[in-house]
C-alpha cells in the first residue's frame, strides 16, 4: 500500500518490500559498477534504460542508484571516489527519504489507481506524465539531483511516451531519468536513442533464493527446499519466485510443466480440467500463473532452438505471437478463458510437431 495515499501500488508485490525499501542488491554487479564508474567520472547520462525480464531487480537497482546520488550529490567527493558499490546505509537520511517518497526531488511515474474500477489503469496516461513534468520543473531548489523513475516504460501509451520524450529532450538542470523496461524494444525509438541502455540478465537461482529470504520474516520462515524449487522454476525472476510461493504456486507450476513437457502429446482430459480451473473471475490468480508459465515455456523453447536456424524457430515464434494476440483479445472482450486454454494447447501441439 502507498504510504502517502493508502492506495495499492502498481509496482509493489503484495507482502514484500517495495524496491525503494530494499537496500540489498543481488546480482547485477557489472551494471552497478558501470553506473558507479560513470558517476565517478562525472559522465552520468541524462537518461538510462534498465532492460531485462520482469522481476530480476531492475527497479531495485534504479532506486539504489537514486539513493546514492541523493546521498552523494558531488561526484568528486571522497566518498564517491572511494565507493565500492552504490550501497547507502539504512541510517542515511537519503535512504529514509527514498523509502517514504518524502523528498521533493525524486519522482515516480507508474500506472495510477482508478477509483471507479478499483483497479490500476492498464497504462501510464499522459496526465500522469504532465504531473511529473510540473513537479520536475518546480523541484526543491536545493541544487541537487532531480531523479524520475519510470516503472515501467512498457506501460507508456503513445501520447504519454511522446510527452516523456519531450521532457527528456528538454530536462531541468541535473535531471536523471531511469526507465525500467521489461521489453526495451517496445520503447519509442526516439526515446531509446536518447538513453544509455543497460541490459540486465536474469539472476542465478541461488541469488533469487537469497533475495527472497532477504524480504522479511514472512519469506525468511519458508522452508529452504521450497524456496529453492521456486527459485529454480522462476527463471531468474524474484517476482516470479514470490508468485510461485503464494497459494501452492509451486505445486501448480509442476502440473503445468508436466503438460508442456508431454508435447507434442496432449492429455486433453487434463487440459479440459485445467480450462475449468482457470475460468471465472475468482480464478484470475491461477490464470495469470498459467500464462506466465506458458510464456516461460515458449521462451525456453525459442532459446533452445535458436542455434538450429530460422526453420526450427518459426513454429514456436508464430505460436508465441498468435497466443499473445488471442490472450489480449480474451482480456479486452472478456471472452471465455476455457476456449482460450484449449486453443493454446492446440496451437502448441502444432508448433511441437513442426
Automatic annotation (TrEMBL):
Keywords: Nucleotidyltransferase, Transferase. It comes from the Bacteria. It holds the Pfam family DNA_pol3_delta2. InterPro entries: DNA_Rep/Repair_Clamp_Loader, P-loop_NTPase. One of its GO terms (biological process) is DNA-templated DNA replication. It is an enzyme of class 2 (transferase). Its EC number is 2.7.7.7. It comes from Methylocystis heyeri. Residues 9-22 have a biased composition (Basic and acidic residues). This is DNA polymerase III subunit delta. Residues 1-22 are annotated as: Disordered. GO terms for cellular component: DNA polymerase III complex. Transmembrane segments: none annotated. GO terms for molecular function: DNA-directed DNA polymerase activity.
